[in-house]
Specification:
By secondary structure, this protein is of the alpha/beta class. The chain has two domains: about 210 residues, Class I glutamine amidotransferase (GATase) domain (Rossmann fold), CATH 3.40.50.880; about 300 residues, Aldolase class I (TIM Barrel, Alpha-Beta Barrel), CATH 3.20.20. Helix content is about 30%, strand content about 25%. It has 16 helices and 27 strands. The longest helix has 13 residues. It binds ligand 1PR. Ligand 1PR binds next to strand 13, strand 19 and helix 10. Its EC number is 3.5.1.2.
Length: about 550
Amino acid sequence: MPKVHLLDYVAGNVRSLVNAIEKCGYEVEWVRSPEEVANAEKLILPGVGHFGHCLSQLSSAGYVPALRAHIDAGKPFMGICVGLQALFSSSAEDPQCSGLDLVPGTLDRFDDSSKSVPHIGWNNASCPTNPTLYDLRPSSKYYYVHSYKYTYKKGVLENLGWAVATATYGGETFVGAVAKGNILATQFHPEKSGVAGLRVIRAFLDGSGAKALAFNPPQIVNGGGSDELVASSEGLTRRVIACLDVRTNDQGDLVVTKGDQYDVREKSSDRSVRNLGKPVEMAKRYYEQGADEVTFLNITSFRDCPVADLPMLEILRKTSETVFVPLTIGGGIRDTVDVDGTKVSALEIATMYFKSGADKVSIGSDAVLAAEEYYNGGKTLFGNTAIEQISKAYGNQAVVVSVDPKRVYVPKQDATRHATIKTQFPGPKGEEYCWYACTIKGGRETRDLDVVELTQAVEAMGAGEILLNCIDKDGTNSGFDLELITQVKEAIRIPVISSSGAGNPGHFQEVFEKTTTDAALGAGMFHRGEYTVQQVKDYLGERGLVVRQFEG
Ligand code: 1PR
């Protein structure tokens, strides 16, 4: 097998990149010291986390001159995500830290006054001057996850010889990919962008992308460098996510199950755990139906020590070999003690999951307890929570907080200290107000903390996204809880995935049109075969909502 070298300079969730490269028929060899860079013919710089952290790791380990020498020698080089950002001069994310300065310019943060940041999801990478740049296609979508970007100004980079592909998010047009000579860099993650992303990796690895670019270099743009900003049409798609609740059944097999308001046992007298299928097979099926992400929740993790939970790791390993969209794993991400008495940190558990192919971890119960401490300590951040530690090591985008709220009705707005809403669906005694109480241990224990408090606390701690379930709606097929979603969206800036209650494609349309949710998740309706992910996406597409279609 031909080889490609990958720079191993910082802990990262690069398993999916390795899988994608192997899928393209190449073997990965790790570069673990600056001296080894000289062995590389094709080199990839995967970027994870924070600009300053990435650059300081590269420079303190002595990689910068070795990288420059590789690039100056004209050997193929590819940067991904922060690996693209590292090529620029600097970033507002860490102004003290210099980039490699191969592309002049400074990155800035997306404006979050009217949209969620990070920018997470499937968007364009279009290059009008080179429409087939590294096999990028105008009709394809690519998976992005980042808070900082290089704002695109027509002609500025082109006039320096760079071919530039762009995307637009909430009116801000930014660089999605740049290429020049032997260099390709993508802000999106090609390894998580399905078949469209694999095409880009292949065009880099087999040299066809660089060859085509040499025949068709970018043209000088008259007036380049002016302040003219380029607005292209909004490309971010509506994300549709499939969720698999996984647990051991009474026979000891790990199965996909699904509850009604979190009760996953059959209503029949034997009350056995509902078995809806095998996790790896079902994840692959949803990927092929066009799911934009797949989430696994290990729903009984609070009973066992997760460190011993090898089957979940195996599920991730197997799934990530064939599913090239982001994978999230939740359940049991917290500091714990192994069966032999060894202490294992949440960060170590998350690392095991990342190494097995997860792109994000989802934290449930532990986030609630951390938020309570945050308020008890007068909103102080000590840096020791699972959220803070994992987001520091892997970036905010890698940490999702899964919220399991329950409605609590009250007769008056000020009947509780909690953030109430006036509801259109009064309570059993006609109560017109309600608040949403957070729970832990899969809804078994209700805490004196509301969803606004929880989501604001975890946002401050560095969570990158909220998975917003709703126990009252779970498994009811009656649609999402729009009131809950609206309340949470108003409280925070990070993206929200709405979950619980989806029963038909119309419910997805409703949640996207009536709230500002960033993504919507379904479980039971897909597992029971009532609708496919593809049917949901077709339905949304027919009604003018932008969706990504699966490319086979
Ligand atoms: O607390 O960090 O160990 O994480 C445990 C995780 O397991 C949490 O994310 C929690 O939401 C989840 N969980 C625990 N118990 C259950 C249960 O069902 N008994 N499942 C559970 C949560 C909710 C969604 C479901 C949607 C959509 N499941 O995942 O997929 O409600 O369902 P629908 O479309 O069929 O309505 P920790």
